[in-house]
Write a structure and sequence with these properties.
By secondary structure, this protein is an all-alpha fold. Helix content is 73%, strand content 0%. It comes from Stappia sediminis. This is Transport permease protein.
Length: 257
């Protein structure tokens, strides 16, 4: 049992190293792009909306408001995107019996968690030092939102990892359906400002809960009473279980080219 776990750990570690070199290259600049891209996007949002409005919907800093909104969404989206392609980009390695589809998923998940954590720390540290000094940060809601975004993204990613393999049409439909999430997840606004009953419709979107929870950690006076952690957690767990079940049933077919 211990020997088998050690072997799995070595395989996943090797896959993580391979992911780093293939995705970011061997130079520091490759990894730095993972930070530059969200920074550029947040800066663009801040410049555009600061020209339109005098103050953001919450607080005084446009940069902080859009950073807390976009990064919470970005954690979910990049996790789902990367995990859903785990098997596809590692097809050649699956010809080795010791490497399983789950190994490729765990390797990508591990690398993505580390990358997302580094990116968030770097961006918020830069905002704190150069732009806006936070009065206080509450780690609990930030970490809870980070965990929920990762869990939801991973669950949807695992499920799509199998479904994308069997249906290219489903993959295209999923991408089309997912695009509006960027506009209805509370990145640009607070769900509190949406009138009844549209706010209730909006809150069926689990990412809106994650974004609001993430923001609570940076705005001590902000109380989003509509946040339902149990709803997001149950949905995330359902996707993880569904994805792992599909992988257990169709794992052998997923290996096929």
């Amino acid at each position: 049992m211990i020997a088998a776990l050690r072997q799995r750990f070595r395989i996943i570690a090797a896959l993580v190293i391979r992911e780093i070199t293939t995705r970011y290259g061997t130079r520091i600049g490759g990894y730095a792009w993972a930070i530059i891209e969200p920074v550029a996007f947040i800066a663009t949002l801040s410049l555009i909306f600061s020209a339109i409005a005098r103050t953001p919907p919450l607080g005084r800093s446009f940069m902080l408001f859009y950073a807390t909104g976009y990064l919470a969404f970005w954690i979910y989206r990049t996790m789902a995107d990367q995990v859903s392609k785990s098997v596809q980009v590692n097809k050649a390695l699956l010809t080795y019996p010791v490497v399983s589809p789950l190994d490729t998923i765990l390797a990508r998940t591990t690398l993505q968690i580390v990358t997302q954590f580094v990116v968030c720390v770097a961006i918020f540290s830069g905002i704190f030092l150069l732009i806006e000094h936070f009065s206080s940060i509450s780690p609990a809601p930030v970490l809870a939102a980070f965990f929920l975004a990762i869990s939801l993204g991973m669950g949807i990613g695992i499920t799509n990892c199998v479904l994308f393999h069997f249906s290219g049409l489903y993959e295209k439909i999923f991408q089309i359906v997912s695009r509006p999430l960027f506009f209805i997840s509370g990145i640009f606004f607070l769900p509190d400002s949406i009138p009844h009953p549209y706010r209730e419709y909006l809150l069926w979107n689990p990412i809106a809960h994650i974004v609001s929870l993430f923001r609570q950690g940076f705005y001590p006076t902000y109380r989003a009473h509509y946040i339902d952690i149990s709803y997001v957690l149950a949905l995330s767990a359902s996707f993880v279980v569904a994805g792992l079940s599909l992988l257990a049933v169709f794992g052998a077919k997923v290996r096929e080219a």
